[in-house]
């Protein structure tokens, strides 16, 4: 067997082995731990294990795109940095399910907004899923640590986007309290291009933090390398099989095998269950892929009389969480700047002249997102060689969305909006505050009717104490296969109603500690 790898000297930044560096058709490697995926969970695992002296190999399916190559053009970023070139959706095709697929994963393209996991969910997970180890007191130092490492801090006053300033006026008029966003961004350049990757490295994504730190501690990182099977022997994890794919041609360049006594799945809530299903592992409960949630969002786009130019400033400046816990309403409101591509798909602008007329008012628009805490009603499956994401918005969750859209529209009109566009498949415009209830009450929970976007897939490999109801135990190890760990957003037993990245960062740090203690 040919085991030769030629590693070219890195021309930029991170030391990453890419498809272009590999000349052999078969590669065999050995490590103390192999990590699948280099996003929020995988990068943290890599650093935490490598810093305790473990030989770590990280395999990432996506390409290595150094930040100097980021385009600041959404359409191009979708093609290079996103899963399925930004085209991933549920089986109905009415929810765009966005995930990063590059070295650094979704943290490269995310908007960096951070929240600690609310105590409400930690308490709920203890009660309903036996996660009595994840108390607020136990988790606090983990949140502190990732907040320090990723420079998570409240936006400075000057970072507020022009649209958020306007929304703030509406909130003040209605007496609704708003929170100031906290983000893992250092000296934000205010370009508004978080979703296309931060060209100046100010966003503290995994690409510029934990991954280089892990490499400095001796971890090795392979891009363009898709893991296709997890290996286990007599109920104990033993490694993975992967394919190195040439990103230019899409053709397989090499088969790669890593033998390792610790296997960590951090491929995200769609790919981690797919890998377990393909490998026929860890599914005695029948729960792998089940309980998928995704925080569906609908953005209302408001038109104002004057130019707002809401395309620079912090991507997120403010949030309204007065009604976010399930008993209070189950929705979170977030402002977000938007580029012309997003502006054109968040409404039904028509084609030809109507489209031109709408886009000519782009500089006057402001969007406010409604994000719902959803029930875990979805399922990720693997059928005929392809993944499928079965998810339809639940009727009760749709009522939460309607309540959120009403509050959202009230705020926008109170801020002085002339009209508000609802993101439906057929044109739907609210012309005055008086029409809000009638228009929103008329919305029905039907497939293919709304332009949903999900930025936060979650669930699918639930963590919990009961091996008949959950896939992963409270220490992050699968119930069925020893030394096989999950460390990504698929762990979350329920959706959490708030942006989940800090939850993933903290859980990955916690589980890394468990692994380092168990395998000292
Ligand atoms: C556009 C966008 C905006 C967002 N904004 C925010 C925000 O503002 N705040 C917030 O809290 N959250 C945000 N999120 C969500 C947040 O980034 C994710 O919840 C978090 O990164 C999930 O971490 P993860 O480890 O589960 O997966 P990811 O970070 O997605 O990493 C998974 C990695 O695994 C790789 N992979 C998949 N399959 C394989 C395989 N078979 N072999 C090898 N590698 C594989 C993928 O390519 C990917 O790089 C956003 C997400 C997106 C897409």
UniProtKB/TrEMBL annotation:
Residues that coordinate or bind FAD = 227
Sorted UniProt keywords? FAD, Flavoprotein, Oxidoreductase
> Per the database record, which ranges form the Glucose-methanol-choline oxidoreductase N-terminal domain?
80-296
Q: Which cofactor does it need?
A: FAD
Q: Which Pfam families match?
A: FAD_binding_2 (PF00890), GMC_oxred_C (PF05199), GMC_oxred_N (PF00732)
- What molecular function terms (GO) are annotated for this protein? flavin adenine dinucleotide binding; oxidoreductase activity, acting on CH-OH group of donors
Tell me the ranges covered by the FAD-dependent oxidoreductase 2 FAD-binding domain, including all copies: 32-66
Q: Which SUPFAM superfamilies match?
A: FAD/NAD(P)-binding domain
User: Is Flavoprotein among the key words of this record?
Assistant: yes
The residue ranges of the Glucose-methanol-choline oxidoreductase C-terminal domain are 388-508
Under InterPro entries, the record lists: FAD-dep_OxRdtase_2_FAD-bd (IPR003953), FAD/NAD-bd_sf (IPR036188), GMC_OxRdtase (IPR012132), GMC_OxRdtase_N (IPR000172), GMC_OxRtase_C (IPR007867)
Q: Indicate the family of this protein.
A: Belongs to the GMC oxidoreductase family.
Per its record, how is this protein called by name?
A: GMC family oxidoreductase
**Species in which this protein is naturally found:** Zoogloea dura
């Amino acid at each position: 067997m040919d085991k030769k790898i030629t590693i070219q000297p890195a021309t930029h930044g991170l030391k990453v082995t890419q498809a272009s560096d590999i000349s052999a058709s078969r590669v065999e490697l050995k490590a103390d731990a192999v990590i699948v995926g280099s996003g929020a969970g995988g990068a943290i695992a890599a650093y935490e294990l490598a810093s305790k002296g473990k030989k770590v190999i990280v395999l990432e399916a996506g390409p290595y795109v150094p930040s100097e190559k980021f385009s600041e053009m959404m359409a191009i970023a979708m093609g290079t940095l996103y899963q399925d070139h930004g085209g991933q959706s549920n089986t109905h095709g009415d929810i765009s399910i966005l995930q990063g697929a590059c070295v650094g994963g979704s943290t490269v393209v995310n908007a960096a907004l951070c929240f600690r996991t609310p105590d409400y969910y930690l308490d709920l997970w203890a009660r309903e899923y036996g996660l009595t180890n994840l108390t607020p007191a136990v988790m606090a130092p983990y949140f502190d640590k990732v907040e320090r490492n990723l420079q998570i801090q409240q936006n400075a006053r000057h970072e507020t986007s022009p649209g958020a300033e306007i929304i703030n006026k509406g909130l003040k008029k209605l007496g609704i309290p708003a929170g100031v966003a906290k983000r893992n961004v250092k000296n934000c350049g205010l370009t508004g291009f978080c979703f296309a990757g931060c060209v100046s490295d100010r966003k503290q994504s995994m690409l510029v933090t934990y991954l280089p730190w892990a490499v400095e501690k001796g971890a090795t990182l392979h891009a363009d390398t898709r893991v296709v099977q997890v290996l286990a022997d007599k109920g104990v994890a033993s490694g993975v099989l992967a394919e190195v794919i040439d990103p230019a041609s899409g053709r397989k360049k090499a088969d790669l095998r890593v033998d390792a006594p610790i296997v960590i799945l951090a491929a995200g809530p769609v790919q981690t269950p797919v890998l377990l299903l393909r490998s026929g592992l860890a599914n005695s409960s029948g729960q792998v892929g089940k309980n998928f949630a995704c925080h569906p969002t609908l953005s209302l786009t408001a038109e104002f009389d004057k130019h707002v130019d809401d395309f620079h400033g912090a991507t997120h400046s403010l949030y309204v969480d007065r009604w976010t816990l399930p008993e209070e309403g189950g929705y979170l409101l977030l402002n977000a700047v938007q580029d012309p591509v997003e502006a054109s798909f968040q409404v039904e602008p028509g084609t030809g002249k109507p489209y031109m007329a709408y886009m000519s008012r782009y500089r006057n628009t402001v969007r406010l997102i409604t994000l719902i805490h959803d029930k875990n009603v979805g399922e990720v499956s693997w059928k005929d060689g392809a993944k499928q994401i079965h998810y339809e918005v639940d009727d009760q969750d749709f009522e939460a969305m309607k309540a959120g859209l009403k509050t959202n529209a009230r705020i926008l009109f109170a801020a002085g909006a002339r009209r508000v566009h609802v993101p439906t498949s057929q044109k739907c415009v609210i012309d005055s505050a008086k029409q809000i209830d009638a228009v929103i009450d008329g919305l029905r929970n039907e497939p293919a009717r709304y332009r949903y976007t999900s930025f936060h897939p979650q669930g699918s490999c639930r963590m919990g104490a009961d091996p008949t109801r959950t896939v992963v135990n409270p220490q992050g190890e699968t119930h069925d296969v020893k030394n096989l760990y999950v460390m990504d957003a698929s762990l979350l037993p329920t959706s959490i109603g708030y942006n989940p990245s800090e939850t993933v960062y903290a859980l990955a740090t916690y589980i890394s500690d468990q692994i380092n203690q168990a395998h000292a």
